[in-house]
């Protein structure tokens, strides 16, 4: 319980399945995304609320930030008065925490006052996540540049804590080198409560996700169960929910009402099934054995390249990645064709409505409505 993720996705449109996979694996409270490459398209993902700020440079849209917050946790978006690409929400995980996602392009010149002003607008305790594009030995870089020194000063002047260790967060493909560009910064009160790790999978980006979680994981959050009335045994319910005279013949009206309520709830619990409290995951009806095997091979070759970053290993990984992507796309296309082909004039009305609900569910969960 209580995991926060930050990831430079390099475009949400092409990374939707990767975001869903990340959610299925981590079940985060919220995900801070950078370089979303969004314009004015609506963003909708089942089970998550979004707060975003798009960045446009001329006719070519680039940058942009977004926070996806699970609707299992109460949250409120914050209004930030800043020129930075930054958004923030207050979310109640264990306590009320402010989460801010920020992206600073590598060639932008940012003054200290702008960064300090952002910090002043964040209610404490807060978690500042994002791609700062700064190099510093403080977070594992081989060199320190101007942006890195600026971030160092920001941390020092505002008495903040850096969660990063020496793990690399960015893979520069042209040079086949790894760097630390993504940071997790927090208020001092959060520092002893949090663990920091860097994900091992790029999820088809060039940045690894940052994973910040509470050191004491606590109990896992669950969906509240719902009564499944269509499967109820109503005859047994009527027998168990019998209101007798002894229940209501009391001097205290409150006690009488409580007796009736207890009788009804007890009858419902014994005769009406309830839904599972397990967290729901995104379905992948197109996922098959070929997808699984190609994905496994891609991960295997990536791990080999991480240990031995040679040209030969890099080429082998890129081929496996391209093959896995091609297999997934083919499987998605075939799955959709099979689904549509199954809707014929000969199917029953029950099956027709069932498929219609599935179809409407998939349409409602399309994240970008043009």
TrEMBL record:
Residues 98-210 form the Endonuclease/exonuclease/phosphatase domain. It comes from the Eukaryota. Gene3D superfamilies: Endonuclease/exonuclease/phosphatase. Pfam families: Exo_endo_phos_2. GO terms for molecular function: catalytic activity. SUPFAM superfamilies: DNase I-like. This is Endonuclease/exonuclease/phosphatase domain-containing protein. It comes from Araneus ventricosus (Orbweaver spider). The lineage of its organism: Eukaryota, Metazoa, Ecdysozoa, Arthropoda, Chelicerata.
């Amino acid at each position: 319980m209580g995991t926060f993720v930050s990831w430079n996705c390099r475009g949400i449109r092409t990374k939707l399945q990767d975001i869903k996979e990340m959610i299925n694996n981590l079940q985060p409270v919220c995900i801070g995304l950078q370089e979303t490459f969004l314009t004015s398209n609506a963003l909708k993902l089942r089970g998550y609320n979004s707060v975003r700020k798009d960045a446009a440079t001329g006719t070519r849209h680039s940058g942009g930030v977004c926070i996806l917050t699970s609707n299992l946790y109460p949250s409120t978006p914050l209004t930030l008065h800043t020129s930075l690409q930054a958004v923030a929400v207050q979310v109640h995980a264990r306590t009320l925490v402010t989460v801010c996602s920020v992206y600073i392009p590598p060639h932008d010149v940012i003054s200290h006052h702008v960064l300090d002003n952002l910090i002043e607008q964040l209610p404490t305790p807060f978690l500042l996540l994002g791609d700062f594009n700064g190099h510093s030995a403080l977070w594992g870089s081989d060199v320190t540049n101007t942006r890195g020194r600026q971030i160092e000063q920001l941390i020092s002047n505002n008495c903040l804590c850096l969660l990063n260790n020496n793990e690399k967060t960015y893979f520069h493909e042209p040079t086949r080198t790894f760097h630390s560009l993504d940071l997790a910064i927090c208020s001092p009160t959060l520092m002893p409560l949090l663990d920091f790790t860097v994900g091992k999978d790029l999820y088809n980006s060039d940045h690894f996700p940052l994973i910040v979680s509470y050191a004491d994981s606590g109990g896992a959050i669950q969906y509240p169960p719902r009564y499944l009335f269509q499967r109820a045994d109503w005859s047994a319910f009527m027998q168990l929910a019998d209101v007798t005279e002894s229940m209501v013949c009391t001097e205290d009206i409150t006690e009488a009402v409580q007796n009736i309520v207890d009788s009804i709830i007890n009858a419902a619990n014994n005769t009406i099934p309830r839904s599972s409290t397990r967290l729901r995951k995104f379905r992948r009806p197109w996922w098959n054995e070929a997808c699984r095997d190609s994905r496994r091979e891609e991960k295997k070759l990536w791990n080999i390249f991480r240990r031995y970053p040679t040209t030969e290993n890099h080429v082998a990984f890129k081929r496996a990645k391209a093959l896995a992507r091609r297999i997934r796309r083919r499987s998605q296309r075939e799955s959709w064709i099979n689904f549509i082909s199954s809707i014929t004039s000969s199917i029953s009305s029950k099956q027709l409505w069932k498929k219609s609900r599935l179809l409407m569910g998939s349409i409602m969960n399309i994240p970008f409505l043009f």
